[in-house]
Amino acid sequence: MQITLEIFRYNPEAGRTKPAYDIFTVEAEPTDRVLDLLEYIKDYQDGTLSFRRSCAHGVCGSDAMRINGANSLACKVLVKDVGSNHIKVEPLLGLPIVKDLVVDMEPFFESYRSVLPYMINDEVPADGKERLQSQEERERFDDTTKCILCAACTTSCPSFWADERYVGPAAIVNGHRFVFDSRDQGAQERLNVLADEMGVWRCRTAFNCTVACPREIHVTRAIAEVKQAITTGKVD
């Protein structure tokens, strides 16, 4: 089948300072991924096309972009699932564009770092080996361990579009992962960060984040649970 790709282009170093779209036509199989088409274009039609990719198996999250208006991983979207022979590919919204489909992820990672996304516990376990927890305790935060930091959720959020200072869904999800971990002792410190003016209360429950997540994390539910923990002062 013949596929037309309309790809966002921006390259200030080459004088393309005004965003525009280039049109490419490629032959594709229904089971080809959008990433496959982008790589074909870069290899055989326009070597200047820039986009991020790494594992190409939906694990690293580096190839998140907008495909026909929806945030997705290019390595997971099949041609047959797009529903059209015309595919429009654009960079994620809300982050500065570096070149073509590449955005500056530093503001995103700055928010991620602000929630202290690591284990906080200086106590030595009684047996001197490891900190144990039950299966039920592990299941409490299992969903939010799935985050791959692709930024698809945060850059689909209207609150983030309105104010880039908003910590965003991905940071809250990663805060949730440690707040509800029975082995961690930094819950209150994280909740204080997330209770800030630009924390969880900026969420307007649009559910865009949950729809956009390629790992099917219940992002909006996680945000609601963090809000409840802040309001009640209880983490359980």
Q: How helical, in percent, are the residues?
A: 25-40%
Instruction: Count helical runs.
Output: 9
Share of β-strand residues:
15-25%
* CATH-defined fold name of the largest domain: Fumarate Reductase Iron-sulfur Protein, Chain B, domain 2
Q: Whole-number radius of gyration?
A: 20 Å
Can you identify the CATH superfamily of the largest domain?
Answer: Alpha-helical ferredoxin
CATH class of the largest domain, named Mainly Alpha
Let me know the average pLDDT: 96
Low-confidence stretches: none
Strand count, sense and barrel status of the largest sheet are:
5 strands, mixed
What shape does the CA trace take? Answer: elongated
* Spatial strand arrangement across the major sheet: 2-1-5-3-4
Q: Number of DSSP strands?
A: 7
Any overview of this molecule?
This protein is α+β, with helices and mostly antiparallel strands and about 240 residues long. It is built from nine helices and seven strands. The strands form two sheets. A five-stranded mixed β-sheet has the order 2-1-5-3-4. Helix 6 runs antiparallel to helix 7. The model has no long low-confidence stretch (mean pLDDT about 95).
Summarize, please.
The protein has 236 residues and is α+β, with helices and mostly antiparallel strands.
Which descriptors would you attach to this protein?
236 residues, alpha+beta, Ubiquitin-like (UB roll), Fumarate Reductase Iron-sulfur Protein, Chain B, domain 2, 2 domains, 5-stranded mixed beta sheet, two-stranded antiparallel sheet
